[in-house]
Design brief:
Layout: H1 2-28, E1 31-40, H2 42-58, E2 73-81, H3 85-99, E3 106-116, E4 119-126, H4 130-143, E5 147-148, H5 165-173, H6 175-178, E6 187-194, H7 195-203, E7 209-211, E8 213-221, E9 227-233
Antiparallel strand pairs: 1-2, 1-8, 2-5, 3-4, 3-7, 4-6, 8-9
Length: about 240
């Protein structure tokens, strides 16, 4: 019996050690709210800056397009453990290399807004292409092993806003599938204005235009879901 029980005891000891190591790693590694995004070229940046200036003229307390509000196209938002960040970046890099988004031409097709307490968060919408949808699906699959649920204010960059934390956590935690695939609404957020002004802005005729992309990156999200701090920039590998 001693011979038969020794391997079991050793196995149990090894399993216990592995579980303790996993728990210790989870405790030592903070969770991060991240955004894998595309960076638009000059044609989109110019149009976004024009809309931002109009919005700030209407609502001076709104935000400028600056390093803490980088104009971008969100492809995927998620929570990951900080310890897994290098592997998330590696996985994202492989997908981006295969997709070659710098060769794309995307089309801006209109404006939209989200109402919030008498204000409107405005943006320019983009026509989803099959290449964009395929790349998003590949990113979701590649990063799924590192995606986590649940987070505290410490997952975000910048000061916490407890009143909005549950909504932001729910938004990011539910990004897949609620805002991906057939539900994907690619856009560039342009600013904040009073809702009546933003509603009129969205109703204006919008001449479509094409634009390219200059890069892709992974950002640390702020408490309102803004792309606050660049953590990684994609460097395309030679094909």
């Amino acid at each position: 019996m001693r011979v038969g029980t020794q391997p079991l005891s050793r196995r149990a000891l090894l399993m216990g050690s592995a579980m303790m190591a996993t728990c210790a790693r989870a405790q030592a590694s903070p969770r991060l709210a991240i955004d894998i995004l595309l960076e638009p070229g000059p044609a989109m940046l110019e149009r976004a800056a024009d809309d931002n200036a109009r919005l700030r003229g209407n609502h001076p307390d709104g935000f400028a397009l600056d390093p803490a509000h980088t104009p971008h196209i969100t492809v995927l938002q998620a929570f990951v453990d900080a310890a897994d960040l290098p592997r998330v970046q590696e996985a994202a890099g492989r997908v981006l290399d295969a997709a070659s988004p710098l060769a794309w031409q995307l089309t801006a097709i209109g404006r939209y807004y989200l109402p919030t307490d008498g204000l409107g968060l405005a943006g320019i919408t983009i026509q989803p292409t099959q290449a964009l949808l395929d790349m998003q699906a590949a990113l979701i699959e590649a990063t799924a092993p590192f995606s986590r649920q649940g987070a505290t204010a410490e997952a975000f960059d910048g000061p916490a806003a407890p009143a909005t934390l549950p909504q932001t956590v729910a938004y990011i935690g539910g990004f897949v599938p609620a805002r991906t695939g057939a539900n994907f609404n690619p856009h560039v957020t342009t600013g904040l204005g009073r809702e009546d002004f933003v509603r009129a802005l969205v109703a204006e005729p919008f001449p479509r235009f094409e634009f390219g992309l200059t890069g892709a990156a992974l950002f640390h999200l702020g408490i309102f879901g803004t792309a606050n701090r660049r953590l990684w920039t994609w460097s395309p590998r030679p094909r």
